[in-house]
Design goal:
Chain lengths: 517, 306
């Protein structure tokens, strides 16, 4: 009897293990709401292109699973960093082949990739990733033909030397825009490269039918044994999110972003796997310090006290939103923990007192990106401002025009959001409040801007984190340059037989370990 | 007749030039930088300027416009800023899809619209007439995206009769064609009804009836031909409209047609593509109107004589 039970237990355990083991094969159907048409992540910085770049290409380092911890991808091990934080020594894995199965990855390809991004004649849209490298500015300006800070040791080893220490440099290398290309294959493809990309990633482009679908198939030469599990991934282009949900419920899509209003119904149905994940974003109301009216710190403080974030988050995004107390998303080293932070809490009485103190300031203006009518968020902000006596006019401006005005620093104020490229406070603070920022913050506190510059080059992690918390306190509490409102979580649903999908905090859904049971 | 067609075609040249000029001016007056749309949030001013230079956007506007006109006159509509693919190829790749959708919807619209219109006119003030005219009014008033989503929900998701969206087979075209066609059928039905009602009150119809002709012969042989003249005008205009992109229908049903392409080109500020699509649209409208005018002549010899 005991023997029989033992055998039975063994069978059960074996069945359980095999049932859980990833199954190889199958086609996964996902969707995009629009077709970016091109696949070059150096040229197109949309999240969608980045998502596809993670299928097609590889980076030197990448995020480990769904964490913010880095691990080597094309490298044998994490790079060695010199004591002064200036010299990074890298070693590539040997025998990594591009999708053609012939071309092998070498140090020259890495150099080519960096120089291509920085090239003064190219369309590299994320030069900032490699700007900390020694000689990057001279190369970018066409004053040198070879990047000074890149030293090839041999075909697999190289060094990157920075101009000055820059702590988030490795994070920069994990951004999909830093994907490594093949010099030979890019040059051979010429103009058509952006349409027919060739990388070292787990999938390769099979077909692209514009505005219909993009089909990726498994890369048989992928350097990580046994991966990926899926035979192919089909991205259908479904412009309407309601229609996408219908397709998902009909079983013709395997993954869907759940519209907020449908969240409870989808979750309660129990028919699908639900993925809820914090993401690196902050929704905010920003005020331009160079605007004649918003330059008044009392007005900005009154505005910060006027917004009931809890009510706003709940009515707009329900369970998807978490109230923000800081601008840098919690979870990032140097950010305030969730629920703590220097931002002002809702206090309409105090706001009213300040408005009374201000006297008659007349109408103040904010802009909205796109739309013919005001978005629900802006209606709420406007109503809350009115409650405390601020006459806030919000003007919808066409999306492209808004972007141009933002770059030129012309937006007086506005509701917006920021999805960070890297999990580092610099990617929030410097981008919005650094010198010459292009976010229409009009921020001009010299002392804080100096602190920002010092923090970015600090090599002691603990000291650096503390510096950013101090900076954020000054920006949010003392200068009230921005009002953080809430952070949004991912809400994804997959079919029950889909497993291993990673919703990464950077906003990219990863399919390297995905499989269909 | 050939002389007439040639004359009309020559007269349409200034119209086409006018359309391209207005489009060019509007694109450059409306704020929004195509390069910013291409490179996104982080690009530095130097890169933006370099790409502007590459694309010829730093040249004076007059030069840019003349370059477009001269190239277009030689059949070269330029390359898409974003993809680098020739504009004519992008239009050529998407137009057949729109053509299929438009013709299928057109077929639905004519069959449904004309037959409902005739029955309503013949049985004026009957229950059928009243109910059909209410349905037609609702059909004209209801937003196409709403009708589309409801149709997708019922016939796609709940009943599973048709695919919900996408463009892979003939089956994928049925639901969008019905949704789009029904909408046009509503106005065709109303036009057919009123035109036929006008005609059947004419003396020659009374004469035909007095001669003892059957009601069917009176309606189909004598009345319908004259009643169709205003209907043909509507049909011609609708065909041009259908062919030049049913943006909403194409978007909701995820059909990769000219409507979606033009929407994409506009949102990306892809100037050559926008100009190419507008030019193509203008030509389609001009040809559509020309065909309508020619068909008048066939329907009514008096117009031919004039």
């Amino acid at each position: 009897m005991r023997k029989f039970l033992l055998v039975l237990a063994l069978i059960v355990v074996t069945v359980f293990i095999f049932a859980q083991a990833p199954k190889r094969g199958g086609v996964l159907y996902d969707y995009w709401t629009s077709d970016r048409m091109i696949f070059d992540p150096q040229e197109d910085t949309y999240l969608q292109t980045y998502g596809m770049a993670r299928l097609l290409f590889s980076t030197l380092v990448r995020y480990k699973g769904e964490t913010l911890e880095l691990e080597p991808e094309l490298l044998v091990k994490m790079p060695e960093i010199s004591q002064d934080g200036l010299v990074y020594t890298f070693e590539l894995k040997k025998g990594i082949k591009f999708h053609d199965g012939k071309t092998e990855l070498t140090s020259d390809d890495v150099k080519f990739t960096i120089e291509r991004m920085l090239s003064p004649k190219g369309r590299g849209a994320s030069k900032w990733l490699f700007e900390p490298i020694l000689g990057a500015t001279a190369f970018k300006n066409g004053e040198s033909t070879s990047l000074e800070g890149f030293k090839k040791i041999d075909d697999y080893k190289f060094q990157i030397i920075l101009e000055k220490p820059y702590a988030p440099f490795l994070q920069n290398l994990a951004v999909p825009a830093a994907s490594i290309f093949s010099e030979k294959l890019v040059k051979a493809a010429g103009e058509s490269w952006r349409l027919k990309p060739v990388g070292t990633g787990p999938f390769r482009l099979k077909t692209h039918t514009p505005n219909t679908e993009i089909v990726f198939e498994r890369n048989p030469y992928y350097f990580e044994p046994g991966l990926p599990y899926l035979d192919s991934i089909v991205y259908r282009i479904v412009p309407d999110s309601t229609v996408a949900l219908m397709e998902f419920e009909a079983g013709t899509l395997d993954v869907v972003t759940i519209p907020v209003l449908e969240y409870e119904r989808i979750k309660k149905s129990g028919k699908y796997n639900i993925i809820e994940k914090e993401a690196l974003n902050t929704y905010f109301f920003i005020m331009n310090l160079k605007d004649p009216k918003w330059s008044n710190p009392l007005l900005r403080k009154a505005m910060a006290l006027a917004i009931n974030k809890q009510e706003m988050a709940q009515s707009l995004f329900g369970p998807r939103a978490v109230v923000a107390k800081s601008f840098v998303t919690p979870g990032i080293p140097g950010a305030y923990p969730l629920g703590e932070g220097p931002a002002y809490d809702y206090n309409p009485e105090e706001a009213r007192k300040i408005v009374a103190q201000l006297g008659n300031i007349g109408k103040v203006t904010a802009w909205q990106s796109g739309g013919d009518t005001l978005s629900q968020a802006n209606i709420i902000i406007q109503a809350m401002a009115k409650e405390v006596g601020i006459d806030l006019e919000i003007v919808p401006i066409e999306r492209a025009a808004f972007r141009q005005a933002r770059n030129e620093g012309k937006i007086p104020a506005g509701y917006g959001n920021w999805w960070a490229d890297i999990p580092d406070p610099d990617n929030y603070i410097e981008v919005f409040f650094g010198r010459d920022n292009q976010m229409s913050s009009g921020y001009n506190n010299e002392e804080v801007q100096e602190m920002i510059e010092k923090a970015s080059i600090e090599v002691d992690p603990q000291k650096r984190e503390e510096m950013y918390r101090q900076i954020e306190y000054k920006i949010l509490r003392e200068d009230v340059a921005i009002i953080p409102l809430f952070h949004l979580k991912y809400l994804l649903a997959t079919q029950k037989n889909v497993h291993g999908v990673i919703a990464h905090p950077t906003g990219i859904t990863l399919y390297l370990y995905a499989y269909k049971q | 007749m050939i002389q007439y067609i040639v004359r009309r075609l020559i007269f349409s040249i200034p119209v086409v030039i006018g359309v391209t000029l207005i489009t060019f001016v509007l694109l450059n007056v409306v704020p929004g930088d195509p390069v910013l749309e291409m490179v996104g949030k982080h690009a530095d001013p130097q890169t933006i300027n370099q790409i502007r230079e590459q694309l010829g956007l730093n040249d004076p506007l007059v030069i840019q416009y003349l370059r477009f006109v001269f190239n277009a006159a030689r059949g070269d509509l330029g390359k898409s800023f974003k993809t680098g693919i020739p504009v004519s190829k992008m239009i050529g790749d998407t137009f057949p899809t729109t053509l299929k959708l438009a013709l299928s919807a057109y077929l639905v619209a004519i069959i449904l619209g004309v037959s409902v219109g005739i029955i309503s006119a013949v049985k004026q003030y009957s229950l059928f007439d009243h109910s059909m005219m209410i349905v037609a009014l609702a059909g004209i008033s209801a937003p196409v995206f709403w009708v589309a989503v409801i149709a997708q929900l019922i016939f796609g998701l709940k009943l599973g009769w048709f695919p919900i969206s996408g463009y892979y087979s003939v089956k994928h075209m049925i639901l969008p064609a019905i949704v789009l066609g029904t909408r046009f059928a509503a106005s065709i039905a109303r036009y057919t009804r009123s035109a036929l009602l006008d005609v059947i009150r004419q003396d020659y119809i009374r004469t035909a009836r007095a001669k003892g002709l059957s009601e069917r012969a009176v309606i189909f042989i004598h009345a319908l031909k004259n009643a169709m003249i205003p209907v043909v005008t509507i049909l011609g205009m609708q065909l041009s409209g259908l062919l030049t992109g049913s943006i909403l229908t194409e978007s909701v049903f995820a059909i990769p047609g000219l409507g979606r392409l033009s929407l994409w080109a506009l949102s990306e500020r892809d100037y050559p593509l926008v100009q190419g699509v507008v030019l193509f649209t203008a030509v389609i409208y001009i040809l559509g109107n020309l065909i309508v005018d020619i068909s008048y002549a066939f329907l009514n010899p008096r117009i031919r004589l004039k």
